[in-house]
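Ticket #4471: structure export looks truncated?
Reporter: QA, pipeline team
Priority: medium

Steps to reproduce: submit the single chain below to the structure queue and open the exported record.
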Amino acid sequence: MKISTILDHIDSGHMALPEFQRGYVWSGDQVRGLFDSLYRRHPVGGLLVWATEAKTAAHRGDGPVVSGIVKLLLDGQQRMTSLYGVIRGKPPRFFDGNAKAFSGLHFHLENETFAFYQPLKMEGDPLWVDVSALMQAGTAGLGGFVTKLTQQPELAPKIGVYVGRLSQLLGISDVDLHIEEVTGADKSLDVVVDIFNRVNSGGTKLSKGDLALAKICADWPEARATMKTKLKAWAQADFNFNLDWLLRSLNTVLTGEAKFSHLDDKTADDIQDGLKRSTKAIDTALNLIGGRLGLDHEQVLFGRFAIPVMVRFLDQNKGQLDEKQRDKLLFWFAQAGMWGRYSGNTESTIDEDLAALESGGIDGLLTKLRFWRGGLRVEPEHFTGWSLGARFYPVLYMLTRMGGARDWGTGIELKANLLGKMSKLEVHHIFPKAQLYKLDHKRAEVNALANFCFQTKQTNLEISDRLPEEYFAEFEKRHPGALATQWIPMDTELWKMKNYRDFLEARKELLAAEANKRMEELLHGETHWLEGAAARKPLSTPVPGGVSSDAEEAQLTALNDWVASLGLAQGEMNFDFADPVTGEQMAVFDLAWPNGIQEELSAPVAVLLDESAEMIALASGAGYRCFTSAAAFRDYIEKDILALEKAA
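Actual output as written to the record:
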């Protein structure tokens, strides 16, 4: 079928995009490559469509489809979206992505190359032709382009050649693409999705959550957009969740189970009701976690998969908890995060905890956690970790927000809800990094948790890289007692550079005592929950890995944002890699996709910058595909994940 006819079918509603398809993810380079191949009449692959009854066809976008049989694109979405966007000069109705990827494509008549618009390079040069403008003008409007060429006398000898190339470019619309159809009454959504995943072996596949959402959208087409709106609102509050996570919470509310298959028999009304209830409960949970524990942004929200369990409990109680219930639930959440309760198989762990909740309420959850972990008291060694990825980094932040910790420069308390997000509260190295490196301290010691505290930006700038023995005395005089509120040992000998290691040990003692005090407060006298059989011995040395500098963090953040701009799932910064059975933290990966870039369908991926060979061996041995540079990772995404010949 001619490309022009296929585009007409998209306009008329004879061809559409199935609801389970993900959005547009191609880059400008891929669009250029497609048009270059079509211009030279190289093969670009055919299309695979699912011919099904329009009345049961769940499709993307708000445009209507024809009555009778509609053809839903299974393989070819990226190509047809690109063709539609350039030839029509606008995205198709089912579009969901970045339109800049196909906006402004130009063709050079002399070099026969494609490039996106660059004012300085192309402005006023008649040899650069706007492809969309030419396609919309068609053969009838070809004369206008030829006239521009004839106005340049030096181009006269090659006018005939250029006209031929313009015609060849216009002829892209007449290229035939082979279309193969999947038909038959036996082709259920599950069967078609399986076909889709097999065909797109190198492209973006569908996870269990995608399939569950596809089934939901078959009965409630607005489901995806409704959920994305809620996810966007949380992102604006600095909490980044994905559709699978939200579906998991919806699932626990409606079924009391974690597996998505339990949603199969739920009606559209059930789903809408469940989404309303689950998002309300999530809002309540986040408000409790942020307001009472002070964990008010993405970087410190450890144990996020404990939230679907909290959501189940909150929904059952209609969000109405007394003070003791609230604090006991938050105690469980904080403890689950501390000990990596959800660092292994999250689905099975959620199911275990939901069963404990069902049989014993909050006490059942705590019994399960204590049986799994052992004693729940914090030891000084638990603060041995280093980097922002350490398991107890969020605990340090939580203690700062829960208690009476004060900013040293201003004397104000740093309580939850007082300062807002992380942009107003900064990590400060108590002993300056540069000075420690001069004394040959290793990175793990320089970035030890016990060398971190939190200050306002103003105070952080005031301290700069001064030594503690200098600025401690100054701040203590200005605001007596402020140092102690941030668990600073008051023995002035420990403030000296030569005694740095002793300072760390003394501060770890103070931090552990504070952590246990705050946990006891949450239990309102029921401190027996902290006791139990001896817990696994804390690590005596810090686990390896983790982001260790501002420059490294900026590089990884830019890399993660780039992945998101392609329509792919973002990775987890400072990923907590733990023993799947015990939950013990084994390492911190700089940036990771534990379920793969194509969730559940491709190998786990880790970006490890400036890490040791032992760290890379550990990650590789756990099945992670490792990249030690941003360039190598980008190459993997472009050539393997978004490969032109494989993308749908």
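Status: closed, not a bug. The export was complete when the record was re-opened. Leaving a note from the reviewer for reference: Residues 644-648 have pLDDT under 50 and may be disordered.
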